[in-house]
Amino acid sequence: MQQAITLTYNGMTMRGMEHIPERAAGEQVPAVILYHGFTGHKLEPHRFFLKICRALEAIGCACYRFDFLGSGESDGDFEDMTVSGEIAQAHAILDHVRQDPRIDPSRITLLGMSMGGLVASLVAGDRPDDLHDLVLLCPAGSMYDLMGPMIDLHLSNPELQVLDYGGNLIGRPFGEDVRSMNVYDRAQKYNKQVLLVHGTADVTVPFEVSKRYIETCYGERATLHPVEGADHTFNKFEWEREAIDTIVSRLKQA
Questions:
Q1: pLDDT, position 254
Q2: Ranges for the Serine aminopeptidase S33 domain (predicted)?
């Protein structure tokens, strides 16, 4: 069953969807929380997140996907968005799911894509005991590594309060936040298994970023699945299908 849901955070409304599989009376089911990427939303390109949720619901997993504040249909403005703000919202979503009586709190997985993967990796580092598994799709790692020159140019001009990024306005707090964030030290505190899925032809977040996560944070606890030739958001049916099948296979065994 799929239905729209809301979550209040700091007086603002985050809008999302939940997918709850059929279950016996009183039965608790595992859950997957999906975190979208930078400038993304709870559907993501070619309805990728919806397709993941439907595939997982079919194997008995509940799924929750919200728009972060300032993105999609949620309250707020994009120019107020920061990674730290999204991490705080991601914690609130995790708390919400853990308190749902339909959900087994010992079997919750975080799944994040791109900057949502960065968010998921840091929430997992903060709360490893509250999670069963972690899935990172083309995780952004340090946003400063990816956007440093643009961020430095923005912050060096005190008169420039916002940047126009494809119609989305980026505020100065975003750059200040990512420039001071120690991503990998925080992420490595997650001490359980992790699956990384990454396109080998990703030019937005290079494939090497997933390798860095493994070398710096996860070591032998990580499984890296390369999708040969795929771009950042798996924009071909065959790439999308391979990514979804890999996720489902992983969580079917969990």
A1: 64
A2: 30-143
When divided into structural domains, the chain yields a total of: 1
Q: Please report, for residues 49, 194, 228, the alpha-carbon distance to residue 121 in angstroms, rounded to integers and kept in the order given.
A: 18, 10, 23
Yes or no: say if 147 and 140 are a contact pair by the CB < 8 Å rule.
no
**Kind of pairing between the strands at 12-19 and 62-66:** antiparallel
pLDDT at 25: 82
Instruction: Give residues with Cβ within 8 angstroms of 111, minimum separation 6.
Output: 32, 33, 34, 35, 52, 120, 134, 135, 136, 137, 247
219 DSSP 8-state letter: G
**CATH code of residue 213:** 3.40.50.1820
Q: Show the domain range for 29.
A: 2-253
| pTM, rounded to two decimals | 0.97
